[in-house]
Amino acid sequence: MSNSNFTLSRNLVRNLSIISLTFLLFYGASRLIFPTPASDISTATPQTKQVAVFGGGCFWGMEAVFEHLKGVSDVVSGFSGGDATTADYTLVSSGFTNHAESVKIIYDPSKISYDQLLKVYFLVAHDPTQLNRQGPDFGKQYRSVIFFANEAQKQEAQKYIEQLNKANIFNKQIVTELSPLKGFYQAEEYHQNYIARNPNSRYVVVHDLPKLAKLQAKFPEIYHK
Fold first, then answer.
1. 111/82 Cα distance (integer angstroms)
2. Relative to the CA of 140, which of 14, 69, 94, 110 has its CA 20 to 30 Å away?
């Protein structure tokens, strides 16, 4: 490992440790009892690897959250919802391409279920009640959307959204869209593994590292460093 990579890793660990401690001190006592999806599928039977595609704000934080889950082998930042000709960061940032910044998650369903991914998506990765925005980022490209790969994923997502709304987990109704997955286009290389490369970026420290601390605190059984 080069000195620069070592420094990045050390800084990331330090920032996560500070944020984790702060999160636990201030929020640990008021943790929500977050419901488990009613249709949670058993992970006992080995299966081939599968794909999930989620959009929920800037893909930097989404990518980092799902990269830290056991059973997930790869996460790619990219675009979904539009066509190949407009799958470019500058064009997508205009908000007029119908693309959403998204992540493609490759996972082993014998180790982690789609329903567990949904749980992390709704509780940790983003705020599903914000319409066409996430935090400081505005526009349709930052919308909350699940691109389902098959009917089973669609039905599981629908049921879970209904379950969460009925349980009044959030102060507002969930606005997450459900759209068929027609294509996923990988974003430019500098967007991949962005947080690992830029752990001291102000945007990352303020908006993304708290998500990783929250993931570790709420889902220690499926979290990995």
1. 31
2. 69
